[in-house]
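not sure who needs this but someone in the group chat was asking about Outer envelope pore protein 24, chloroplastic-like isoform X1 from Abrus precatorius so here u go. i didnt clean anything up, its just raw.
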Amino acid sequence: MKAALKGRYDIDKNGAAAATLAVSTGDVKIRASITDVTFVNGPSLTGLALAVEKPGAFIVDYNVPKKDFRFQFMNTVRVAEKPLNLTYMHSRGDNKTVLDGTLVLDSSNKVSANYVLDTRNCKLKYVYVHKGETAFEPCYDMAKNSWDFAFSRRLCGDDLLRASYQTSSKMLGLEWSRNSKLNGCFKISASLDLAEELKLPKISAETTWNFEM
């Protein structure tokens, strides 16, 4: 059995913290996540979520305090000899269904669409990867009639720098992440609302430890 423990710390939320423990048993992963509110005024079920996942097939999430299930099913079909990755997500509590599809044209180009049923909420995104290191990701939000942009650059194989900008909310995001068996895994994120008069960034840090049981 293999396990991974992920911790998250939000500096701007008075040091709010969260943790996720995932255990792999064969093809299935069992995941539990908690937030700091779980231990406010003593241990409780507040902020506790459980999940069962088979990568590439399905995910079942259960929000303990809300007693709410979320189902997610994945499959891949071929369209004109190109792989089309499909995802179906349904949340029972708010009766929300989301369809997501990604068509991989080649190793450098892919097109994706995300649509919430019975709404105008639809997003179209194009991803271009240059030489396997630099990615450009323009995205059009039909509901907001606006564009979002993202740019990422891989450094030294393990480190990734990513910048994003949402034109509708004027939100600027920066992220530095590392995924390495030798040097560890972490992610440091910062977001800045350019529409606010007092521009203070929101910062969070996340790290992952992998171990065998």
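also Residues 115 and 167 are 20 Å apart (CA to CA). if thats useful
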